[in-house]
Amino acid sequence: MSTLSRAAAIQILQNALAIHNAGRIGEAVPLYEAAAPQLQDLSHFWHFYGLALFQSGATEKAIDCFRRSLLLAPGDANCINRFACVFLSSDDPDDAWAQLRHALVIAPDHPEAWRNIAEAERLRGDASNARISLEKAMALRPEEASWKMSYAAVLNDLELPEEALSALQSFAKSSAPTPEYYFQEARAFFDAFKASRAIISYRKSLLMTPGAPQALNNLQLLERRVGRMQDGVKSATRACVLEPGNTGLQHGLTDALLSAGEIARGQARNFWRHLKPEILIIRQGLPEEWDGEPCRDGQSLLICHEQGIGDEIRFASCIPDIQKRFGGPVILESDKRLTALFARSFPGLTVVEKVQRSDTDPPTALYQPLVQEHGIGRYMMLADLQSVVRPSVEAFPDQAGYLAPDATETAHWKDRFRATGSGPAVGISWRSGMRRAGARHNYPELKDIVPLLEVAEFLPVCLQYDASGSETEAIQATSGRQLYIPPGIDQREELDRVAAMIAALDLVISPNTSVLMMAGAVGTPSIGLHSQCGAIFFGAERDPWFPGECSLVKTGDRSWPALIDEAIPHLIRMLSSSG
């Protein structure tokens, strides 16, 4: 039992607070511990003891102290705010947000709580409300320069580069630029289609903090976009050296190598993609991975499904060569929307629907029944087929098209398009159905594609499966041309019919989506609008997977309207050839 008097404990607490405020956390914690037996009923003791423990990394003990403080003083907004910081640091923005909402009910003008709830909202993916909360925080404490930096970061999250640059200029008037300043400046320049200036800003950030792997990763992405492929490889390599266990950085290096044409090195480390949390699947019951050698025991080879529809279409082009090389039964696991198309296209191939994935995190797929049913002795992932039969750009076939759409369905669509009397039928898509951060760099805006509709007479066929009425109406209002909406077909689900419809077209124009890949797979001429010479190019100037594609690339500081201007003469030329 402690013999320390309460008065002595209070004095120790005051000493601990003074040392704590001086930043000497390690010295303050033992003093708090010494005072604890006599100050069990003092809420602010538990508050600041919890804060010191949190700052020293003792998170669980800190949580206990904060809870004790709030049992004694449930209306202490300062303590609730700091308690919420524990959840923020533990990557638990939902619990942090709930605590901070409570703090702001008690103290609506609490600037730190507004700043912290903005961070919780940002981590929850709610950048719009994060912006509002930060604006309230800055109005309450305008002199806090670091909050202006957070504000610029949120504006970048919202893809508002001009406003982000303005916020950064405001920061620079009162504070010296920091590594984070240059990092956010680089993000804003990139979103404003000023890639060269963004590269300079990332390099400034890295001069100040050379050990920042995320800045190096962003730098390599930009270096590749402006065509500096080997610089991209160097930056990606440095990032991996700094953080070798980061699967995203390792996958970034794989892409950098493939983009630079270092195909063997890139393919040898392509396994990193399977470890990325967003695509990780635990596949149970698979046999040994195929080593690329011919079939020796009569057992089947399973090609496992992975990634999205577009990638599935692209990598399926390897299947005929895989069948020849393996020389035994081949089983393809496929999205059910593609099974009929693949079965028709590849004689001798057995196509099965994708094995069901569990709802767990990460998902699990049980392959034992499939393996037993088909006598499977080896497996290979779909996107790894390239390492066996596409070791170089020269290994790609010259002929366009490898999928065989239903001939009757194709004839049906040709008759429909011809019946309009509007000239050649040109399929148009302008974005992926999956909207991700950075979409403005990968896909043109609706207004950007309008000039394509104004340069020649043709039937513009909408291949955007999720196009809204407002989008199609906007195109008509701007261009004076009405998009032809194919009737009676679900372009998202009926992919066998979609393949036939695309085969009936004279031309397809699309960014890098499954629509563009389907056009290449069925042999329809196309104009591909690419944001960069990515990993799929294997260091070439055009997409080698689809010989019938005219690949146009938005490199450097160009915006989408500049690429569309480049596409127009190709459109006129290709329409003349089709006529």
Q: Bin the strand percentage.
A: 5-15%
Q: Which parts are unreliable, with pLDDT below 50 for 5 consecutive residues or more?
A: none
Helical percent range? 40-55%
- How would you classify the helix and strand content by structural class? alpha/beta
Walk me through what this model shows:
With 579 residues, the protein is an alpha/beta fold. It has helices at 6-21, 25-35, 43-55, 59-72, 77-89, 93-106, 111-123, 127-140, 145-157, 161-174, 179-191, 195-208, 213-225, 229-242, 247-259, 263-268, 309-315, 319-326, 339-345, 368-374, 385-389, 407-419, 439-442, 469-479, 495-503, 514-522, 560-578, and strands at 282-284, 288-289, 300-304, 330-334, 349-353, 364-366, 376-381, 425-428, 459-462, 507-511, 526-530, 549-553. The strands form three sheets. It has a five-stranded parallel sheet with strand order 2-7-3-4-5, sandwiched between helices. Strands 9-8-10-11-12 form a five-stranded parallel sheet, with helices on both faces. Strands 1-6 form a two-stranded parallel sheet. The longest helix is centred in the C-terminal third of the chain and has 19 residues, at 560-578.
List the helices and strands and how they pair.
Blueprint: H1 6-21, H2 25-35, H3 43-55, H4 59-72, H5 77-89, H6 93-106, H7 111-123, H8 127-140, H9 145-157, H10 161-174, H11 179-191, H12 195-208, H13 213-225, H14 229-242, H15 247-259, H16 263-268, E1 282-284, E2 288-289, E3 300-304, H17 309-315, H18 319-326, E4 330-334, H19 339-345, E5 349-353, E6 364-366, H20 368-374, E7 376-381, H21 385-389, H22 407-419, E8 425-428, H23 439-442, E9 459-462, H24 469-479, H25 495-503, E10 507-511, H26 514-522, E11 526-530, E12 549-553, H27 560-578
Parallel strand pairs: 1-6, 2-7, 3-4, 3-7, 4-5, 8-9, 8-10, 10-11, 11-12
